[in-house]
Design goal:
By secondary structure, the chain is mainly alpha-helical. Helices cover 65% and strands 4% of the residues. The protein has 49 helices and ten strands. The protein has a five-stranded parallel sheet. A three-stranded antiparallel sheet has the order 8-10-9. A hairpin with a 2-residue loop joins strand 3 and strand 4. Helix 36 runs parallel beside helix 38. It is globular. It starts with 17 loop residues before the first helix and ends in an 18-residue tail after the last helix.
């Protein structure tokens, strides 16, 4: 940490801040107990943030904590990528060298992107998940270092933080789970204007319950008096306190400046502003010291002594004398490591910097740049490229700035600082036309961007750099950093430039980028852009671009329109990738191909292919393919009814994605886990998995996963209002721009069930009709069967309702015809086919116990407890409907007992109530007791708490009567009928008359009056 510095203007008395210090100490105590803590400390410039942090750090060290400080570094107007984290990790390496080396073991190359002292960071092509992997490794490194001792990481001056630092901090605060770690980040609150890039991060962190924020206020008059007394070592005159308090407005730094100026007889009373006061202090220095101070002001937050000497061009004795005067006047301070100098407060630096003349500023930047070019060892190696680029840019020398800025962009990319890379590349594009042609002709690309084609065949580094190459790098950097709008603008400009260029391969590459960007931002499904790219490469010789386009086409078709075209595209992508040696593209295309084999019915071949791809991707360390395989393979297993295998695979996938930092992939895995857990009847775990998906996801789709699973659970548990709310949320998150069967069909199933449960059969039919218009492409039968089942069940439950009769025969016929077209290639869908067939027969009043026994026999070997319980209930109802022998009644009793037990365990209230109601009507006792139990009431309406009059009213409501018609039939007033209806709705826990009618019909409260209306004792 920054050591205490004895200065005349810093009060030796620590004034106030008892509450804030108490909060920090409480956080340290919690962290020491094993509960990691995160705090934000904000306040205006000069209010005392650094003094509070120093006081706390000193106290924490006394308590045995290891304290590591890192500050955001400002170079001109540019932040240095990951600067505070690099500094903090260096401090930990000094204090705990063995522990940090052990914690980083096996991941030194990746972590070297933040701490170069750990080794050489890997080179080569980057992928979209590289930053997330680095972030995950960094968080786990800090957790491991803090496993056995309290560690405090203090990150200062977030208002200067680069985008990559902000993203890493957000990731750290979101994912910190273990360790005795306390992270405190400070920022200057008065700098956070509406467009400041830190503002969205603060809003995001405020929503995290694990993050506390401390706002540091100005001093009160009494605190100002205590501060002045500490500085003067005597009680101040009350009038002087009033004057300083009025002029400083309680800002601690300005109190110090005014108090010292007044004590030393300075002209504080004559200055027009506090800024002038700071400059007066500087102007009182000798001329050589003023010159050095101005040089330091333009050099960044900290300037190394050797660099300062090279820029100042003074003899060493004169430089030291000039520095001594500046330090003695408390304008400059020596850095804690004794290697350089910084301003005592950033406000002084800003005042001096603002006072520089334009020509003076550019001249100083040129001298800094020339010094760094002459001797690169003047600054740390990991900072040199960024600092040199900044100085040449602010020196307004395009010939020097363009190569330097490109070098800095490469350095940022190697550190996965893609936001900084994008900013630097945009700066390079700005400089391109003003740089001399000779300079541009000598530039070479470092490597190829993804599969972006070089101008000629051969190595990328051997071809001249073109403006389009910069745009390609910038487009990818924008995508990797999440700046997709900027990336989309860049691709649009590039495609405009390519219109008359006659370069179809490059154009195809940019169209492919555009497809990804359009789809990821919800601006479309990306197909038009992909199709354009495919047209451009058609007929061209094999290339990586060609293979990548085909691989993306195959994947898009698999998700949106699976079938022969998708299979053909995947096979061609594999073929082209092999021809050009594009291993990663080949593995990705083979993964798609394997999934398509499974969906087309060649299950064993497809699963074997996916397993082989996963094995090879793991050997080669292809993180993206490894993550995608742990999404797709469990989905394939779930699709063929092997849910337990899917869950095991998904748990492995969670460990993998966490270790690699693949956040969005982890979110998809949580979403798939929720589906498989729902199938297995582990509903509470499924809900938690859905919540995790939303928590870690970086896009809208994981929020859709969570809403979908909660909608399914709410429907199964009888909470129709919540099911409707979650259904609407899921559809909003998935959007209408990119409808895919794997999202749309499960939501249509929920919509049908919810509408039917609320008595809106026509809405349920409309939902089904919409889904049937789209159809069921090959491989989507896994979503089609549950939808047909929901619709068939709705038709069967509504049999006998007058409102259901119109279009009934047509609807049932359409369902039966559609069911014949769906695949039943594995036991789980064979079981669904039997179930749908039995429900359709029930909708026509023609189902028999044999139909339901056949369905039950199909479900009994499967891992589907809820489905099994529902089929058992149906079979029991069918056995009891025809009177039933004692043997059949005994079997029905056991079926209902098992069904209700499962329903009770799952919290499936509608099924539990239906089973109980059926048992009550049939005078069956479901509970196993030691002695005889009293018979259940014959009328299930009694169990609902309905009075005799309310039962009569509900019967008429179920028949579709209005309040006036009910009043006429029961010889009561319409107002009394309305009161009865309100009471009934409350007792049934429903929102409207249609839903009440549906409940009555489902529970068979009012059996048909004649035998020809259908078998008695049926429940929904």
């Amino acid at each position: 940490m920054l050591g205490a510095v004895e200065t005349r203007s810093v009060s030796p008395v620590f004034v106030g801040r008892a509450d804030e210090l108490g909060t920090l100490n409480d956080a340290l105590a919690r962290a020491a107990a094993g509960e990691p803590q995160a705090l934000l400390l904000g306040g205006e410039a000069g209010v005392g943030k650094t003094r509070l942090i120093e006081e706390f750090a000193t106290s924490a060290c006394r308590e045995g904590a290891v304290v590591a400080v890192g500050g955001c570094v400002e170079i001109g107007a540019d932040g240095l990528p990951f600067a505070p984290f690099s500094s903090a990790l260096r401090a930990l390496r000094r204090h705990l060298p063995g522990e940090l080396a052990e914690a980083a073991a096996g991941q030194e190359e990746e972590l070297a992107r933040l701490l170069p002292e750990l080794g050489e960071s890997p080179r080569g092509r980057h992928d979209e998940d590289g930053t997330a992997r680095l972030f995950e490794l960094t968080v786990r490194l800090l957790e491991r270092v803090a496993a056995d001792r309290p560690v405090v990481v203090l990150l200062e001056d977030l208002h200067w933080a680069d985008a990559s630092t902000r993203h890493l901090l957000a990731y750290l605060f979101r994912t910190l789970r273990s360790g005795r770690l306390l992270v405190v980040a400070t920022y200057r609150a008065d700098d956070i204007h509406r467009r400041h890039p830190l503002r969205p991060l603060l809003a995001e962190l405020d929503r995290l319950r694990t993050v506390r924020r401390i706002e540091l206020n100005r001093f009160s008059r009494s605190e100002v008096a205590r501060q002045i007394a500490g500085i003067l070592a005597a009680e101040p005159d009350p009038a002087q306190v009033d004057d300083i308090f009025a002029r400083s407005d309680g800002n601690a730094f300005f109190v110090e400046e005014l108090a010292v100026a007044a004590r030393d007889g300075g002209c504080a009373g004559l200055t027009d502003s506090l800024r002038d006061l700071l400059l007066v202090r500087v102007e009182s220095l000798p001329e050589s010291s003023q010159r050095v101070v101005r040089i330091v002001a333009e050099g960044g937050s900290t300037v190394e002594y050797r660099l300062l000497a090279a820029v100042a061009r003074l003899c060493e004795d004169d430089l030291i004398e000039a520095l001594r005067a500046a330090v003695g006047a408390n304008i400059l301070l020596a850095t804690p490591d004794g290697d350089g100098y910084r301003f005592r407060h950033s406000l002084v630096r800003e005042a001096v910097g603002d006072d520089l003349l334009p020509g003076e500023r550019s001249r100083l930047n040129r001298r800094y740049a020339e010094a760094l070019e002459a001797d690169p060892t003047l600054v740390p190696a990991d900072e040199r490229a960024a600092r040199l680029a900044s100085h040449w840019y602010h020196a307004h020398d395009a010939a020097k700035a363009l190569p330097a800025v490109l070098d800095a962009s490469v350095a940022a990319r190697r550190r996965h600082a893609y936001s900084e890379q994008l900013r630097l590349l945009e700066r390079a594009m700005e400089l391109w036309d003003t740089a001399p042609e000779a300079v541009r002709a000598d530039l070479r690309p470092v490597d190829c961007t993804e599969v972006y084609p070089p101008a000629q065949s051969g190595e990328c580094a051997g071809t001249p750099l073109r403006y389009l190459d910069l745009m390609a790098e910038a487009a990818v950097a924008g995508r990797f950093s999440g700046e997709r709008k900027r990336a989309l603008k860049i691709t649009k400009r590039a495609l405009h430039l390519l219109e008359d260029d006659g370069d179809p391969l490059r154009a195809a590459w940019f169209w492919l980028q555009r497809s990804r960007l359009v789809e990821s931002q919800g601006l479309g499904d990306g197909w038009q852009e992909l199709a354009t790219a495919q047209d451009l490469v058609r007929g061209l010789p094999p290339s990586e671009v060609h293979a990548d386009v085909l691989a993306n086409v195959a994947n898009w078709l698999m998700v949106h329109r699976p079938g022969p075209d998708a299979l053909q595209a995947a096979e061609r992508a594999v073929q082209y990738a092999r021809m050009v040696g594009a291993r990663d593209i080949e593995l990705n295309a083979r993964l798609t191909l394997g999934g398509l084999f499974v969906e087309s019915g060649d299950i064993d071949v497809g699963l074997a292919e996916v397993h082989e791809v996963l094995r090879r991707a793991t050997q080669a360390g292809v993180a993206y393919v490894m993550g995608r395989a742990h999404v797709n393979l469990p989905s394939n297993l779930e699709g063929v009814g092997r849910s337990l295998e899917a869950v095991r695979m998904l748990h492995q996938g969670l460990e993998l994605t966490r270790s690699l930092g693949l956040l969005d992939t982890e979110a998809w895995i949580w979403g798939n886990l929720a589906d498989s857990l729902f199938s297995l009847g582990r509903w509470d775990e499924a809900a938690e998995a859905g919540d995790h998906s939303e928590r870690v996801g970086q896009s809208a789709k994981p929020r859709g996963f969570r809403a979908t699973i909660h909608a399914r659970l709410a429907l199964a548990r009888g909470d129709l209002a919540t099911a409707g709310e979650q259904l609407a949320r899921a559809r909003a998150h998935f959007g209408t721009h990119d409808s895919v069967p794997q999202h749309a069909l499960p939501l249509a199933t929920v919509a049908v069930g919810t509408a039917a449960g609320q008595g809106r059969l026509q809405d349920a039919r409309a939902e089904l009709a919409q889904a049937l218009r789209i159809g069921f492409p090959p491989g989507t039968h896994r979503y089609g069967w549950p939808l047909l089942l929901a619709a068939a069940t709705a038709e069967a439950d509504a049999r006998g309702l007058p409102a259901a009769e119109p279009d009934r025969a047509e609807s049932v016929g359409r369902l039966r015809e559609t069911a014949r077209s769906l695949v039943t290639n594995v036991p789980v869908w064979q079981a669904h086919e039997r179930w749908v067939r039995a429900e359709l027969l029930r909708a026509e009043g023609r189902d028999t116990p044999d139909d339901w026994s056949e369905a039950l026999a199909a479900f009994e070997p499967l891992e589907r407890p809820y489905d099994l319980a529902r089929v058992r209930y149906r079979l029991a109802g069918s056995l009891l409907a025809r009177g039933g022998t004692e043997e059949e009644r005994g079997r029905a009793t056991e079926l209902l007992r098992l069904s209700r037990a499962t329903a009770d365990h799952l919290g499936a209230r509608p099924l539990a109530e239906a089973a109980s109601a059926l048992a009550q009507r049939a005078r069956l006792t479901l509970a196993r007791a030691a002695g005889p139990a009293p018979l259940a009431p014959a009328d299930p309406a009694e169990a609902l708490g309905l009075t005799s009059r309310e039962r009569d009213v509900l019967r008429l409501v179920a028949a579709g009567r209005s309040n006036r018609q009910i009043a006429e039939e029961l010889f009561i007033s319409p107002k009394t009928a309305s009161v009865h209806v309100s009471n009934i709705l409350a007792k049934l826990g429903v929102a409207g008359r249609g839903e009440a009618a549906a409940v009555a019909h489902r529970m068979r409260l009012f059996p048909p009056e004649t035998a020809t209306a259908g078998p008695a004792g049926r429940a929904g």
